[in-house]
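Internal ticket #5521
Category: modeling
Description: The requester needs a full-assembly model to guide mutagenesis choices. All entity lines are attached below as received. Residue total reported by intake: 456.
Assigned to: D.W.
Attached entities:
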Amino acid sequence: MTTTEHASEAARPEEGNRVPGEPDMWFFVFFESLLFTSYFCVYLYARTQNERAFLRSQSHLLLWLGIVDTIVLLTSSWVMARCVQHARAGRHELARRFAIVTAGLGVVFLALKMVEWVRLIHSGNTLTSSDFMQYYFFLTGIHAIHLLIGFVVVGVIIYQLSDARRRSPRTIETCSTYWHTVDLFWVVIFAMLYIVR
Amino acid sequence: MSLSTWRDDPKRELWFAWYATVAFYSLYSVVFFLITRTQPPGQPWYRPDQVVRWFADRHTGLLVGFALIFVLGGFSATSIALITYSIRRMSVSRAFAYSYLILYSISAVPGFLFICVAMTVGAMRPDRSPGLQRWLYDLGFLSFSGTMGVFLIGSLIWMAAILLDRNRVFPRWFAYLNLCNALTEVVIAPSWIFQRGVLAWNGVIAWWIDVVVFGLYTGVFIYLLRSMIRREDFGTGPLPDLPPRRAPSSRPAVEAGAS
């Protein structure tokens, strides 16, 4: 057993009593959640003002594609959780592989999103074509920017896990918190844009 | 504090920069919100005759308010300098501080000077053709709101410096607040496209929500800069914590001893 493994074993009894990762990252989660909540409130209010037009535009979205997007991103969250578990247990090489898979699933999600954007634009549904599409492109776009930052965050995890001198379970947990937050935002965006009728 | 104590205080330049920062942001708010009433912004969909009326309603305020900005707006340099100083005090490469300094020095021009020039020119000759007045009106608001993205990289540089810093100059949650602020600056970009709705330059998302975040962010960084100055020891290692406040119960004993 390596020194790092001993350290992680020693830390285990305290795990149930502490917040995962840096408490400061939870500030980001809280603040960004407030921000997204405000966007959702604005969207829902606009929807109540012209429900029929929103429903008409919403019919251009492919529900199954949204479901696939959601499954891909939720799977990435599960894989990220496995990565953290392995990192805590000192199985760093395995954890690194899980982090790479997480980033790969993120790329798949983004590719699917681009396919959907291109399909919509080709069928005449753009940022300016209707109020619903304005919200659709805004919410999915701002989420995609969060996801792009997520790739940097996963890059930090991979970088940390690549060298024994750099490994910090706390940093890995902090980065995974970011990834889960972005996934959570998508679940709500999916419900708002694809499911709510 | 007496004058001689102030003169001997090694932090006096830092305090001067901090008070100038507070004065600048106060002036900025008063001029933009109260004197010129250019914030909240006018409607992007105004017809030329409505724009002419908009200028006429604010004629004196625009001339007086922005004259104040032209005289005192240079104080914005003190806040940039103080933030640059804070990054220099960190354990990170100086490249962060210099990048921030250059970026924000350039950004101040589209960030708030363009709107002042455009609106003052508009107010100067009310008899100018309504089409030209609308051109100036668009230039003013678009340069002000639409170019907020130039501050994005600055916020990210500050964020990265705080996250990498080992001298504990700022708490790490402030790095994440920088990220939140940077992400709201992205949201303003579509104001170039929309003349109505939530993403227009006066929209609920592009302006109202963003201005709340920016106001909070500004208040927080001014407070944290004050805290940094109080903790400054002019060394190169970690910034010391502030001494704990004296317990209220200890005061009577001290006073009794003094008497």
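Resolution: model delivered.
Comment from assignee: Chain A has seven helices and no strands.
Ticket closed.
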